[in-house]
Design brief:
Shape: globular
Helix content: 25-40%
Order of helices and strands: EEHHEEEEEHHHHEHEEHHEHEEEEEEH
Distance between the termini: 35 Å
Radius of gyration: 21 Å
Strand content: 25-35%
Low-confidence stretches: none
Structural class: alpha+beta
Number of domains: 2
Number of strands: 17
Number of helices: 11
């Protein structure tokens, strides 16, 4: 694992002795990890179906998308645990037991909400502009009508873990959370982590105010000349892209932004399917056909929108009407 240098100080990676210690650090940093638009339940709830018993580490109600809230289970794990015998079995047990435990989970979450003023206030504020008449109706929908998701928080992502999750018929997101300690001062600590839905929550503020996030249907990916010619145009696909699981079913188009010296979106393609890329937590996007060449949508020098360094979202309509990159995002 890498080290961190800040000024003249060197920070070494901290190796957790047990999952409980790791989970404590995660819980203390829930807000920066998950951001706004969520309610986190850091309580374990036993789920059982006949002789199958599983206990998730927590639950997350996410309403980042106003009309499409989702429920996730949280699994806090350490890289030292066997991803096949430990993590994989735990999640498989949950997937089997979950459907028959819906009423129990709903009752449990309602109890926790009613006993926590902050959670109740957050959900009440969301409900004011939602389609749900009350918290009961919200939980009914996200537990019984929408697919459950899994968020695995781990101190180091491995190919084996990604491979295990790729085999399960449940959408998952992996968040890496690492702790570093100053080698000369053990009280000086740095945390490094992957934010939940970082590709969505990093959207330009202007874009958030000008369109409904539910309409996002186009992913824009940056590419250098060689990769663009050989893969985007040559293979009619693009990989390896980090995409939040909730966006997989929303993406209908992919646009290619060619880096300097072209510095413009030059092609767009309709998406045929999106699959996990090999044994990783990233994805490959397959096109329905050859990418269509469009009038270049150029970067405006020294403007509000900077050259894309990672995948970004917009709408197909907004992209087709744009004259420059500022009008895309």
């Amino acid at each position: 694992m890498a080290k961190i240098i800040r000024g003249q100080s060197i920070y070494n990676p901290f190796e957790y002795d047990d999952e409980e210690e790791f989970e404590k650090d995660v819980i203390e940093h829930v807000e920066p990890i998950f951001g706004s638009g969520v309610v986190y339940f850091n309580v374990k709830k036993r789920i059982a179906k006949q002789n199958i018993i599983t206990i998730p580490d927590g639950y997350l109600v996410d309403f980042s998308f106003q009309d499409n809230p989702r429920l996730y289970i949280i699994e806090n794990e350490l890289v030292i645990h066997d991803p096949y015998k430990h993590i994989g079995q735990q999640l498989l047990k949950f997937a089997v037991a979950y459907k028959n435990a819906g009423r129990e989970i709903k009752s449990y979450l309602l109890e926790k909400i009613s006993n926590n003023d902050n959670k109740k206030e957050t959900l009440d504020n969301y409900l004011q502009n939602s389609k749900y008449r009350n918290i009961d109706a919200l939980l009914e929908d996200i537990i019984f009508n929408k697919p459950i998701g899994v968020i695995v928080i781990i101190d180091e992502i491995t190919d084996d873990l990604s491979n295990v999750l790729n085999q399960l018929n449940i959408k998952s997101d992996i968040l890496e959370f690492q702790k570093y300690i100053n080698q000369n001062d053990s009280s000086d600590i740095i945390y490094q982590f992957t934010p939940f839905q970082q590709d969505i929550k990093s959207l330009e503020p202007v874009l958030r105010t000008t369109i409904d996030l539910e309409r996002l249907d186009t992913i824009v990916v940056p590419a250098n000349e060689d990769g663009f010619q050989s893969v985007f145009l040559g293979e009619n696909c693009w990989y390896a892209i980090r995409i939040s699981s909730i966006m997989i079913d929303k993406i209908r188009y992919i646009a290619g932004y060619q880096t300097a010296p072209i510095s413009a979106i030059t092609h767009i393609a309709e998406v045929e399917k999106i699959e996990k890329y090999q044994n990783t937590d990233k994805y490959i996007v397959y096109f329905k056909g050859k990418a269509e060449k469009i009038e270049p949508i150029k970067l405006v020098p020294k403007s509000r929108v900077k050259a894309p360094q990672a995948p970004r979202y917009t709408t197909y309509r907004k992209l087709k009407e744009a004259k420059n990159l500022d009008e895309v995002f």
